[in-house]
Write the structure tokens for this entry.
Amino acid sequence: MIRFDAVTKTYPDGTVAVNALTLEAATGETTVLVGPSGCGKTTSLRMVNRMVEPTSGQVWLDGRDIATIAPHELRRGIGYVIQQAGLFPHRTVLDNIATVPVLTGCSRRQARTRAAELLDLVGLSSDLAGRYPNQLSGGQQQRVGVARALAADPPVMLMDEPFSALDPVVREQLQNEFLRLQHDLGKTIVFVTHDIDEAIKLGDKVAILDSGGTLVQAGSPAELLSRPGTPFVASFLGRDRGYRALTFAQAGSLPLSDETPVRLGDPLVLASDRQTDGWVLVLDDQEVPQGWLATATLSDRQDVGTVTADLLHLGGTLATAHGTLREALDAALSSPSGRGVVVNENGRLAGTVTASHVLALVEKRAARLRAAELQPAVAGLTAPKAQP
Ligand code: ADP
């Protein structure tokens, strides 16, 4: 665990970059520092590997005050990834990644073998091993940067706006890869970004800083979205906050309706018989949903034809039975029939759900939350402390 304990950094010109920061970053989790430019995120991050020394307060790593650990020893256990990757321009991709293992005593051969594994781990083709950084795209450079930081297998990773310079599509790809990698590796990560959506997506814990280097609120994404502690946090989290909170609400007990589906290859006339509201769900022979059939448009073919893939309306996202309310709502809203398709883990049909059913559940949960928030105040009024 990393712990900031009343850490303040005042630069020689008097700028207070970080102001009495107290914050814990749990082992094996991603803690994201987020806030507007100049609020002290990078300064905080660099105090963890002693690139910046605090003016007062301590940073602890697994119970040791890092001021007592020599910087080179400390940094051996800490990977560091920055924007624009910071690669050595005159070294090949493979040698960039192998640099750290060589420094820590691996033979060149071992280091290169490890580097090749890492290249694969971050999703890069081995064809790129011999290229130089300027022969790579921005996204590829950033992947090499991550591979290099992972090379010594450090338990801690510091990541400073690693994806900020990339275009939105590549950025999203790298964020998804990040989540996959972190799921497998379980590093203790402190991640800096100015992008609240990135913070909410990647963080197990998100710490929101405001200018002057003050921590305003820290908590899980779900906590922040459902209970922002100050107007600043609420406005920083932005619009759609209530809707985005659904991303973290497990659908759990969704009221699923049964369908009377048909299968690919069934006679069309059967589909017309099954018609309830003009839409019939079509499955393959493994019970996996394939799309919707609009029975009203089949009148001239239904006596002879069979259900084929080219007749289906696709569109419509699938929700999973153990997914989130947002997924379920999206499935319902994007379905041509208005009935969102919910599947089990194995991809087979579990049932369907309408937007109004999902919203009723959302409303019920919100009412319960409001009631829970009122309770202490009510209890305080009606149940005064017993006199001693
Ligand atoms: P962020 O990462 O949130 O953008 P920084 O930690 O980089 O914020 O900077 C916090 C504040 O400290 C800013 O006002 C910045 O100008 C100032 N600052 C950063 N580095 C230095 C420095 N070396 N000397 C003086 N002021 C600095």
Observations:
- Residues 11, 13, 15, 17, 37-43 surround adenosine-5'-diphosphate (CB under 6 Å).
